[in-house]
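Subject: complex prediction, re-run

Hi both,

The earlier run crashed halfway through, so I resubmitted it with identical inputs.
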Amino acid sequence: MSADRTEGATAGRTRGAATTVSTHCAYCALQCGTRLHHDGRAVEVEPSPDFPVNRGRLCQKGWTAPALLTVPDRLRTPLVRRPDGRLAPAGWDEALDLVASRLTRLREEHGPDAVAVFGGGGLTNEKAYALGKFARVALGTSQIDYNGRFCMSSAAAAGNAAFGVDRGLPFPVTDLAEAEVVLLAGANPAETMPPLMRHLARPRLVVVDPRRTRTAEQAALHLQPAPGTDLALALGLLHLAVTEGHLDKEYLDTRTTGFDAAWQYAVAWWPERVEQVTGVPVADQREAVRMLAEAGRRYVLTGRGVEQHSKGTDTTAAFINLALALGLPGRTGSGYGCLTGQGNGQGGREHGQKADQLPGYRMITDPEARAHVAAVWGVDPDSLPGPGRSAYRLLDALGTPDGPRALLLMGSNPVVSAPHAAHVGRRLAALDLLVVADLVPSETTELADVVLPVAQWAEEEGTMTNLEGRVLRRRALLAPPEGVRTDLEVLHGLAVRMGQPAERFPVSPRAVFDELRRASSGGRADYAGITYERLDAGEALHWPCPDENHPGTPRLFLDRFAHADGRARFAPVEYRDPAETPDAGFPLHATTGRVLAQYQSGAQTRRVPELMDAAPEAHVEIHPDTAARYGLSEGDLARITSARGSTIARVRLVRTLRTDTVFLPFHFPDAGRANLLTGPALDPVSGMPEFKVSAVRVEPWQERAT
Amino acid sequence: MTAITVIGCGPAAHRLVQRLHHHGHRGPVTVLGAEPEPAYNRALLVSALDGTLRARDLALAPFPPGVRVRTGTRAVAVDRRRRLVRGDDGTEHPYDVLVLATGSRAVLPRLTGAGGRFVPDVRVPRTLAGARPVGEGPVVVAGGGLRGVETAYALGRAGHHVTLVHPGAHPMHRLLDERAGALLTAALRDAGVALETGRRVTGVEPGRAVLDDGRSPAAGTLLLCTGARPDTALARAAGLAVRHGVVVDDRLRTSAPDVYALGDCAEHPGCQATLASAWEQADALARTLTGGDGRLRPARHVVRPRLSGLDVAVLGPPGALRRPDGGEQVVLSDPARGRYGRLVLHDGRVHAGVLVRLPRAVATVGQLYAADRPLPADRLALLLGTGGEYAESAELPDTAVVCQCNNVTKKALEQAWHSGARDLPAIAAATRATTGCGSCAALVRQVCGALAPA
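This time it finished cleanly. Structure:
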């Protein structure tokens, strides 16, 4: 019970006299407030009683996060792959010289797009910003994207199209506690972000999820659509909102455009048809609409369950359409929002890690945006590259004749987390040069030519932007271990070696943030008025915050939406099937997701003993009837196979699952990777892969005697 | 580039043209629609009739750019030699590929007294014009098949005085067995619909409809829902093979080269004249015409009448319920609550069935039937929609996880209690239970309460 107290390895690493800091959790986008304390021997964590998002609460991941500071296999020296094929320790100068010279040579021989960059939604704002700048200025490459493409891209695309800006929740989470009804579409916060549930205790919940999750168990109404059919359900709910007379006509007339075009698709989704496509009973569809329509304060929230599809943008847009038809967004006490996943999933998508974006949520194709950012960076706007490939397309192109030959990767583990993972592993292996910055060895560092050990949470300063668009200070309790550098130091070291002026890539997070403020000024995500001083003084600042006297914007859209005409836009969307539907050879749907005790690719959480006790290995949830049909019992090993490949997982019988569906968490390595099954189908707008539906078969698996 | 001309502007034609565009066809496309309105959603005409939706609300999404749509133009002849279609307005429309989507034509009874003064407003609610909202006064619906039942039920619920006249023993007698028919009869009566079964409408007289037994219920409006048959006139005249409908093969080809047919006008052995079939055929034909694999693999569809608040589903080939062929039968009958379910299973899969007022089963069984999947072992739970509920065991095992967020077992709670943690904050401090989402607080209290001395 004492993993929140980690002894030994942190002795002597405290910074000066500071032995207690207020900071935020190492993991998800809730960014629960925590206090870290170091007594000279060990680090303890406790939840902040006064941070409104968690108010004294934490989940098991948060409570055990200090264990990350003392993991025994922490990377403490750069590693370079030697002629014998093994990764061996090297000095920083050797490693950085090697990387810089090889990147320079590849660029000279094959052009700037021969080198690529892949970032992560866990990086601080400062790192995300610096990484984007490094790619565009030091490398001059258009080939940069990040793992948030696998996370928030569909919601971002739909939100931008509807509202003119994408901020996950355009209101503080505490507003949810005042609601009467909340519809959660494809979100399972009881498992993925438990402290959020305190804000959802009062409202009656309508939960849309193919699985009866812990969140669904707490719902007043659970709609259980077949995987890949949520878009039909959302169209059907809009249809019912109209035919049952719940359309908010005045809101439609004064605050929106485009309803008629959206209706021309929704009209064909009458409830009986929706039922036969989704499996959601007509009576439940009606009840869901009635509950939402008759409540005074109500919200529609989406999560990865509806977004991680080859039609994720359209599905999210269809739920936004429903919210608009009922007049929710931009109204006090009601609204639409998406639940951002990764720790800095919000800030990480605003400051230039995305293939098509510059800082401040500016578009890289917009001449004014290019001019503004180029001026801040002190470069010629024409020197900035154009848009590059989105994440999966980028990974898919690595080492191909037209694709990048080198990749610098920070804060991501795509060998586990990317779709069609075996293929992605082969593409990474085909590179001339793979450079990975991480804190621990991962399945991806194993493929690297150079591994750079970097600082982590609680060892560095910076800012994170949580799911409400509130900018938060991450503070260092400890110095990084001997031999470890920060990501900013790594980028600085490489940039200087590649001929950039030293002052263009500062290593101080505060200096980077001040530059980020200028770069974002006037953009959609405007941080100009947010300073470390204001944050350290305890101000709660949500962007946009255009100047230092501005109080920030906890609630967006109350007067107008961010489009030029101030109106929100309905999206004309039509249903389409998933890229893959079950057939005789692959008769079941497989859907992937998360468990409470693990986080993302598991590189961090699989090193925490208490979390491994709770969720030790890959498992597959399956209905008892389905299991029996394929000769499987509780606790057996099963082989699950799709058209891409197979994965091995321990059988867990779940009576509440649909008989046509199995579920696998994706946190586990090697043969247990759920992403060995998932396919390369992408959303045409957002580039989001289809993580949530594959067609598979299941069969018993015998462990081979070794 | 292939020029495609489509005769008909209903849902099959609309879907075909949308899918052609989707699959990349950029050659000329011409659509000839006999009705004056642009394409609209026929499946929702009842909602226009009962006033739930306005006529304009039924409009389908616009055709893709470049498609020539001539509404109000009825095709009157196909010249196969010259490859062109003649319209009733004298226009000629050449084609490389011709698609017949002429739909179906109402089968109407010969009515005595029609055309007289003060007789009811007689309409066939199969078009936007026929489905304009009904006026004041009583309504007689002739024909109690699927469309007649939907119409009578919706108008009854909307407050109209409705009489449904049906020649069979109960409404939808071809689709429903006797028990389901009795429940539907009762539901129609509850919706305010008077029923005349075993009867036909044979004529009209001022303010009334006349039945074949001589009685004459009051009628301001007479709606004829007396069935339809494929509209094959043009195909016949063009010399195509026609049986009940225009005969097509698995690629929707008619007997003539470069002439295809789909939707209600076509006759394919695996398809019924339903909207779902028409869409499916449109998808397949669009693939064929754009060079893809367009072989039609007809899916299984559930007949799912649109009756607000009354869930009815019919599964299986027509008549299969009457001839169960010795399969396993599962029957649930609960007349007091109006619930009824009967499934005929072959090899653990649904062969045929009928479900009334079993809303969850209608959804679940419908999907299992469509995908031809085996039913769950617990058939009763399936029909009642209670499948998958956990039985609450009275006693939690020691290893049961009470606080999911922090993986705290019952045993760990008990140990904390025995070590002196006697209230929730103390338990939380010792074990972290309740400190995540907080939803386990009641259960934690209960576990600890059981340890306290009475």
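The radius of gyration of chain B is 29 Å.

- K.
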